[in-house]
Amino acid sequence: MNYDLLKEEEKILKSDFMKYFEHSISMHKLIKEMYKSDFSNEKKCEEFVEEVNSLETKSNHIHAILLEDAVWFISKETPKANHLRFVIGIINSIFDLERICDHAQRIALFKARNKTVSIFMKETVVELENNIENFSNKIYEALLNFKVMNVYNQCIKDSEDFFLNYKNKLYSIYNEIDSMDKSKNGTLIDFVTVLKNLDRTVDHFRNILENFVFINNPDFFVRNKKID
């Protein structure tokens, strides 16, 4: 096994992975732009949905190529433990990124299904997507600069804070339910799935952080996850 060649191939795999990470962030930025826009402009909304669908198709393509590259890396190089952990971390994270992009598409399709979207719903998506953008950028920079251990505890706290905010939004929806307005209730129930997609997006970004902690700390999943 040529060590220098192995490290170079790891570098290429990491670079391609980071580009996929950027792609997932850009999809959620687009969702934020969409929900900040004027929903009375149906043509513009349709253009947003079409662009998100196109990016989701691209995501599936990137996912397939990256996964094949990672599998080929293992079969060709038969890497030892520390290098194998790196590839496993990449493979696990590729699946997280694919789900993150799926969630963005589902949030876009909520508008396509519902002609009437309240100001509360629009503002909620913008607020939570803004939180997701900050959260994902923090993890992206940590991965890029090999500093995942430095941000781990803060990112865990950020994800827990996001979950509390998510629950508060659910309570707000519950209070909006009107037993006399089935149409409104249907939209509210549908919006609950949007909130869940946002919550799961944070979970997947957190998974990626933990995957890269695992690369440097093999016993991470068999001990307390809090890093002192």
Molecular structure report:
This protein has helices spanning 3-36, 42-77, 81-113, 119-144, 148-176, 182-216. The chain has 228 residues and is mainly alpha-helical. It has a single domain, classed as Methane Monooxygenase Hydroxylase, Chain G, domain 1. α1 (3-36) runs antiparallel to α2 (42-77), α1 (3-36) runs antiparallel to α4 and α5 runs antiparallel to α6 (182-216). The longest helix is centred in the N-terminal third of the chain and has 36 residues, at 42-77. The radius of gyration is 20 Å and the shape is elongated.
Offer a concise description of the structure.
The chain has one domain (3-218): Phosphate transport system protein phou homolog 2, domain 2 (Methane Monooxygenase Hydroxylase, Chain G, domain 1), CATH 1.20.58.220. It is built from 6 helices and no strands. It has helices spanning 3-36, 42-77, 81-113, 119-144, 148-176, 182-216.
